């Protein structure tokens, strides 16, 4: 690398650092956040479990409510359940197209939501994960307005993560951080079954 090129690079990095330092200095608030992970690509729930790991690493207590339950216990459930700081609730009746029973799905969703709202009032729970919750809104099992009202009243330092496709606009509006994961390609469409450690 030439001397001029080296100097130009150093000057550019110094400008960049000044901008970043300024932005960091402006970010002075600390509060509980509402995060939404949506979109058709893979990585919504697994990203949420990553934050669960972070929170646990900081000694926080966490609660997980899974609104769509599969028959087998997932790798994340098997792993996180060992931690006494984790409360894990499987609140689904199964996939709707498998159960074929709307009333059973609704009952499971309501029971799950009733448990979740208790956690959403507990200041000792630092992070609440509402996994696959967007489907409850889509099918009308639980009202979005009711959920938003409970979220507004939750403890000030409590973080909440909601996952699921097609997040409704009002949920996006209420959230602090929203990511939409795009589906570029997925191994399943090339005939690969769900792999332990990656998909389940
Ligand atoms: P993950 O739990 O892997 O982060 P996700 O939460 O983003 O996935 P879900 O819709 O909850 O996505 O689906 C969970 C399961 O479906 C996982 O096994 C995942 O690999 C698979 N899956 C997710 N997105 C796709 C897709 N676009 N095509 C095929 N399979 C998918
Ligand atoms: Mg998911």
What does the model show?
The structure is a single chain. This protein folds into two domains: 1-30; 32-190, 3-Layer(aba) Sandwich (Rossmann fold), CATH 3.40.50.300. 43% of the residues lie in helices and 14% in strands. The chain has helices at residues 3-26, 44-57, 75-80, 96-99, 102-119, 134-138, 144-152, 169-174, and strands at 34-38, 62-66, 86-90, 127-131, 159-163, 177-180. The protein has a six-stranded parallel beta sheet with strand order 3-2-4-5-1-6, with helices on both faces. The N and C termini lie far apart (47 Å). The site of adenosine-5'-triphosphate has 15 residues, from helix 2. Magnesium ion (MG) binds at residues 44-45, 132, 163.
SSE inventory with pairings:
Blueprint: H1 3-26, E1 34-38, H2 44-57, E2 62-66, H3 75-80, E3 86-90, H4 96-99, H5 102-119, E4 127-131, H6 134-138, H7 144-152, E5 159-163, H8 169-174, E6 177-180
Parallel strand pairs: 1-5, 1-6, 2-3, 2-4, 4-5
Bound molecules: adenosine-5'-triphosphate and magnesium ion.
Number of helices: 8
* CATH superfamily (homologous) name of the largest domain: P-loop containing nucleotide triphosphate hydrolases
Q: Helix and strand succession?
A: HEHEHEHHEHHEHE
CATH class of the largest domain, named Alpha Beta
At the fold tier of CATH, the topology name of the largest domain is Rossmann fold
By secondary-structure content and strand pairing, the structural class works out as: alpha/beta
Bound molecules: adenosine-5'-triphosphate, magnesium ion
The proportion of residues forming helix, as a percent range, comes to 40-55%
Q: C-alpha Rg, in Å?
A: 20 Å
The largest sheet has its strands arranged as 3-2-4-5-1-6
Q: Domains counted in the coordinates: how many?
A: 2
- What is the overall shape? globular
| CATH architectural designation of the largest domain | 3-Layer(aba) Sandwich
Mean pLDDT across every amino acid position: 94
């Amino acid at each position: 690398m030439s001397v001029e090129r080296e100097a130009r690079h150093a000057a550019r990095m110094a400008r960049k650092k000044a901008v970043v330092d300024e932005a960091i200095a402006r970010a002075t608030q600390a509060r509980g956040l509402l995060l939404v992970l949506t979109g058709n690509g893979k990585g919504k729930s697994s990203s949420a479990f990553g934050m669960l790991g972070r929170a646990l690493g900081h000694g926080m207590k966490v609660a997980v409510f899974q609104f769509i339950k599969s028959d087998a216990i997932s790798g994340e459930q098997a792993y996180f359940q060992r931690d006494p700081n984790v409360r894990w609730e499987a609140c689904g009746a199964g996939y709707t197209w498998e159960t074929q029973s709307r009333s059973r799905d609704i009952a499971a969703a309501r029971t799950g939501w009733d448990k979740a709202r208790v956690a959403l009032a507990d200041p000792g729970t630092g992070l609440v994960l509402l996994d696959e919750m967007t489907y409850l809104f889509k099918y009308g099992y639980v009202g979005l307005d009711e959920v938003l009202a409970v979220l507004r009243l939750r403890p000030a330092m409590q973080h909440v993560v909601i996952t699921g496709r097609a997040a409704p606009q009002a949920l996006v509006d209420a959230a602090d951080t929203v990511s939409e994961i795009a589906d570029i390609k997925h191994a399943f469409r090339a005939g690969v079954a769900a792999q332990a450690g990656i998909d389940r």
